[in-house]
Amino acid sequence: MVSAEFANRPQKKLVLFDVDDTLTRPRQPATTEMIDLLRKLKDQVVIGFVGGSDLVKITDQLSVHGENALELFDFGFAENGLIAYKLGKKQASQSFINYIGEERYKKLVNFILHYLADMDLPIKRGTFVEFRNGMVNVSPMGRNATVDERNEFAAYDKIHKIRAAFVEVLREKFADYGLTYTIGGQISFDVFPNGWDKTYCLRFVEQEGFDEIHFFGDKTYEGGNDYEIFTDARTIGHSVKGPADTMRICTELFLSS
User: Fold this and answer.
1) What mean pLDDT do residues 63-78 have?
2) Are the CB atoms for 225 and 215 separated by under 8 Å?
3) Of residues 18, 190, 218, 226, which has the active-site annotation?
4) CA angle, residues 218, 151, 79, in degrees to nearest 5
5) 3-class DSSP string for 13-76
6) In the chain, % of residues over pLDDT 90
7) Quick check: is 20 catalytic?
8) Closest CA to 22 of 200, 252, 215, 222
9) Is 43 designated active site?
10) What is the pLDDT of residue 74?
11) pTM score, two decimals?
């Protein structure tokens, strides 16, 4: 039986969403149409977001058109759930630096920075390593890039597999660190302890008694940052090609009756 906090929803289902290329275009705000759909969905089911980015970036994208993301969504999971909110209240969190330790962290980051210094790319900007509470985000071109520059790198990376090759180097070099590497978005990849992928967020919801837990994401292939939660036995996974696809499938599944 679903918990009392969500007993008023007609469908006893939880619907979780990735953010970039699922609810929004990469690093762009959600459209009015998407926000309207989410409001309608919330009348029927319980909704949540689960993103790899930090909370500020995610809420900037989703707190639009008069909405506060942590009020619109019943559950909010940033950094794969290492930062977690339920009904606007913060839940217990974890720390990457406490897990790995300062000395090992410095060895990892120093290696990454040396490797990036020797990497020849058409464009380089700034913020190549971003330390977050539950992970490290690595961007070969740098996160301080315009939308057009991000698109250019994404097209280049699709051909030359820059991120995939970098990940393989790190897996071999730091095999004893117990880390997972996942490619997400257009320009970066995440590094975090094994088990701290997006399935981490499920520990906050699996005792709520939902009949079904659905997940929508775009990077659902092996090595993508939606793969683990998409294939997890506790979820019903939906692979999408963008926000319009998400809206179409949600309407068919949850709003058509």
Assistant:
1) 91
2) no
3) 18
4) 45
5) EEEEECCECCCECCCCCCCHHHHHHHHHHHCCCEEEEECCCCHHHHHHHHCCCCCCHHHHCCEE
6) 82
7) yes
8) 215
9) no
10) 97
11) 0.79
